[in-house]
Design brief:
The structure holds two protein chains of two kinds. Chain A is α+β, with helices and mostly antiparallel strands. Helix content of chain A is 55%, strand content 7%. The relative contact order of chain A is 0.05. In chain B, 52% of the residues are buried. Classes of the chains: A alpha+beta, B mainly alpha. At the A-B interface, helix 1, helix 3, helix 4, helix 5 and helix 9 of A face strand 1, helix 2, helix 3, helix 4 and helix 5 of B.
Amino acid sequence: MPPKLTPSRWRTLEPIIDAALDLAREERGAYVRVACADDDSLRADVERLLAAHDGPDTKLDVPAAQRFASLLDDGPPQMPPVVDQRYRIGPILGRGGMATVFLADDLRHERQVALKVLHVELAAALGVERFLAEIKTTAQLQHSHILPLHDSGDAGGILFYVMPYVPGGTLRQRLSQAEPISLAEVVQIASDVATALDAAHRRGVVHRDIKPENILLQDGAALVADFGIALALSAAASARSAIPRLIVGTPRYMSPEQAAADGAVDARADVYSLGVVVQEMLTSGGPMAAATPIPPAVASVVARAIASSPSDRYPSAGEFTAALALAAASGAGISKTAWWRKRGAALRVAGAAAAAVFLIVSGNAFVHRTVTVTARQRTVNQKALDRYNVGSWWLDKRTPNGADSAERLFKEAIAADSNYSDAYSGLADVYLFYGIGNLGDYDPRQYFPRAKTAALRARSLDSTSARAHASVALVMIFDDHDWAGAERELKRSLELDPTYGPARTWNVVLLEFTAQFNDAVKEARMDVAFNPLSMLAATELGRALFLARDYDAAATQLRWTLARDSTQYRAHLVLGQVLEQQHEYESAISEMKTTVRLAPGSSRAHAYLANAYAVAGKPNDALQELRVLTDRAAHAYVPALDFAVVYAGLGKKDETFYWLGKALDDHSMRIYLQDATFDLIRSDPRYEVLLKRINLPYPA
Amino acid sequence: MVVTTQSDLLEELRSGGRQALDRLLPIVYRELRAMAHRHVASRDNGTLATTELVHEAYLKLVDQSRAEWSDRAHFLAVASVAMRQVLIDRAKARTALKRGGERRRVTLEEDMVAIDSDAESVLAIDDALTRLAEIDPRLARVVECRFYAGLSEEEIAEALGVTVRTVERDWAKARMLLRDTLAS
């Protein structure tokens, strides 16, 4: 057993360990032998620690809350058998972050009720009397789709309120069932909720906490619960000077303006929340369910309901659900025109969203296409599945270390099950992210061929895997510039699984790269509607708006993205580009500096900082950043495209063309070619030649 | 649904130092507990993502229109301490409930996990982390940020005021020391 390590011992060991870690694994042994000379005990310690470094994964590699989720769950509150001499407490119906709901017998009226008990901490923080006063004034709404409040009270510190018991359960429970919710059902539920919301809004009451837990289902109808509770909590808390500002709500369903807590939310905050709920219903049943593809017209309606600015949304819940019903009735499927098959024709043909036409179908028959997906029931062994899941989690981090771990885990998954398609797709995505440059500077010529092999293997192992088709598409976009092929693969992917988010994002990327900017914006909006939590999708919408030259909208979208996650360095970079176009040079430089700070390993960040300096009329600063790239290129790979970015900023056409040509050779050509960075060269005949080399038509 | 205050959080964050941490910790702690609770109680599928919890807490607790980049970094650092505390409290309550006796030693090897209860693992890791802090406090902070708050390397770098490269290296060293500590 090794002796316990002391701080002073560690100070002796650390420099040797540091130096050893800088070396390749196979070189470490020789180094340690030299560095420790004849001190055998030192050498033993160093070797033991380095062996620990090379060991398998530790428990620490999975975040604590995920590993120990079971520990975070509190027990239910301790309740007396009878509350307020009137309600006999029965079993728990549900528990949330705010309250626990019990089934209870109302002894006075001999009926079953739902008794909701606020968590003790919450009740104490709010002040019981004020809360009870508020709940009375705000919960007097009467409507056929609003669950009424029977009673409320304080039983020895237990703050409760009583509602009718609805045996049908909540929408959350319905969502957790494997059976997907049909489009007709989605429209029905949303419309019921909307009539309740409209009625309340007319009386000036905003719900503020619309979510599946608060929507109850009974005999095919939906009832909205907890009306006015959020406001009551909010009002009760604001009345206490100790808690001057307060946000009540559930982040996932909360509108941006409610999250900002300026106090002035109106009906459109509820429209937003309902939009998120509808989006969740549309993607219910999970990726394995035989799902109905979501018609683009429906997705567009949802996108408008959850627009980040209230003025872009439907003004009322009723107008939202009316549009939803109309779009659902149109039954438009996923169809697109492949414009590159008829070069010379009008460049921009309407894409998916624009092609969707609203058709009014008489009666209530919702026509929608159903695609039967072959059930993917192949069994994967548990070890392979575990490795794959943890690998996917790491890949989502989008960091070099994350990708490194993901690569290892996917390989382990393949070792455990050599026919596991998804693990090959995961591996392909790892190599793609390296090659595309999302993780820093890695030579695409080393990574794309590996990505291609893995993606094609994934597809051949399971031709019904949405993930495999999406990975193949990404290879076609960035390595082959095979636009028609990529479109075909993405279409297939979305048919197989409309809920596979990345396929939608890659479709945006495809439209951007092929200069179909307006369609890219529409598709990006849909992508965001379907994946409201995806930072990748949010950033890509910002870039699509930038490419479509809608700079104000792009800036708003990117700032909103960064408010949610300010580490998204690509969002900082594109925002910097937008600011350059708005002639806000100092702000642009500042964004680019942030990008460099967040992604110091990325030459692109330095290239765009140089570009911003150059455009701002600071050529000396630009040249200094260029030096960073040239110094780096002396001993490491730097994408040729990044040099082109700098020279374009400096207004040097010949150099720009030289480096863009190089970018085709080293496979580093990216969507940046299509944005304002390279406006300088678009009228030059050499530009047409360049486009030809990546199979793109020269715009008329 | 959770209810939170955000009045002076920005000022607290900006004032920095141990005092701000002490003032903030209960608020963040309460918030994280409520959120974790909600996720576990109502989750439809999938796993609880720590990062999501912490980011949600930040969005809710801090006035976004006034917040600056560095506020977020400070907040995340505080949140990681709070997350650690949440887990320890829960684990202690759990073990007190069940036995209150001697804790068994755990190792970090995956194969050994099965014999240890979650609560024991949490406490053993906590002990190891306390010992790591004695050897090198910064390594322990990196583990806190990454393991308890699920922060990315970039976020940790910002929160601790070091480079991403340093974070990567610290994580590697912390990992080997913890493995060594828990094995001995």
